[in-house]
Specification:
Length: 291
């Protein structure tokens, strides 16, 4: 008999994600080398070839980029480097041209060049075996982990799902050096950055006026929005002497994009509006919006 969390939370989330452009692949059909390897290596290599097809990359240079990604550790400095690789690419020296080329892992300009896969009940082995409720992969890289709880349960809620992900971070560090966003889902959905070296991180909700919590969370995870967040809104930061990661609230994401679009429209002559006002309250993230 299937659990209520699967019926009430997992199933609807996956269906909604599929409607936005994600392809569902059962866990036993993912192209995996083993339960210890979180990367889907073959899909990643295919994506690299497709995205970088004009570069003249040779097979060994593609493998150099993949090995460079795999060889990074799971600490704070390695996490910064992996995030940078996802944003800007991996530098590889091309033998023929004798130049350094940045191998792109994700095509931010052309969404159709990327492979968006969602899977469920995905097993990983580390210091212990875990089973992720929902994992989202872009080009074979696991980027989002959603853990679900029965919304009718009195014993468990989103806090339980959040704690579960924090526990998983320690059990399978090799997976969570790639995963950037965690989500704890029940009747509501909370999101947070994956920071394995911190016991607690800032938790928030993607709140859109007039939108149900599950629908709002899926809006955050649409391919276009997720890539925008990964490229421009997720970053490393040092707070109180400790490295962490920062994700935007919906209001920050919306405000920043509206500012940029207004400037671009003004420069293109589409509007004569060249200023605006953004309301904030104490602790709402004014500094990060400006960044």
């Amino acid at each position: 008999m299937r659990s209520l969390e699967a019926i009430l939370v997992e199933d609807p989330l996956i269906e909604k994600l599929q409607a936005t452009g994600w392809t569902f692949t059962p866990a036993d059909q993912l192209e995996r080398e083993s339960y210890k390897e979180p990367l889907l290596v073959n899909p990643l290599i295919r994506a690299i070839k497709k995205i970088n097809k004009e570069s003249g990359l040779e097979e060994k240079e593609i493998w150099l980029a993949v090995r460079e990604l795999q060889s990074r550790g799971s600490g704070a400095e390695a996490a910064k480097q992996i995030l940078q690789f996802m944003k800007e690419g991996i530098p590889v020296r091309l033998e023929k041209e004798r130049t350094v080329y940045y191998v792109q892992l994700i095509d931010y300009a052309n969404l159709s060049n990327n492979d968006f896969v969602v899977s469920r009940q995905v097993i990983h082995d580390g210091t212990e075996r875990i089973r992720n409720d929902i994992l989202l992969y872009i080009n074979g890289i696991p980027l989002v982990n959603i853990e679900c709880k029965d919304p009718a349960s009195l014993a468990e809620d989103w806090h339980t799902a959040y704690s579960q992900i924090k526990k998983y971070e320690q059990a399978v560090r090799e997976l969570y050096k790639y995963v950037q966003i965690g989500m704890a889902a029940e009747q509501i959905v909370k999101f947070f950055p994956i920071v394995p070296w911190q016991t607690e991180v800032k938790v928030d909700e993607w709140k859109i006026e007039g939108t149900e919590p599950h629908d709002a969370a899926v809006t955050m995870l649409t391919p276009e929005c997720l890539l925008d967040i990964l490229r421009f809104f997720l970053f490393s930061r040092r707070e109180r002497g400790e490295d962490t990661k920062v994700l935007p609230r919906y209001i920050q994401y919306r405000a920043a994009n509206k500012m940029v679009n207004r400037v671009l429209d003004n420069l293109a002559g589409k509007t004569d509006r060249n200023k605006g006002l953004i309301w904030h309250w104490q602790g709402s993230g004014k500094t990060l919006t400006m960044i």
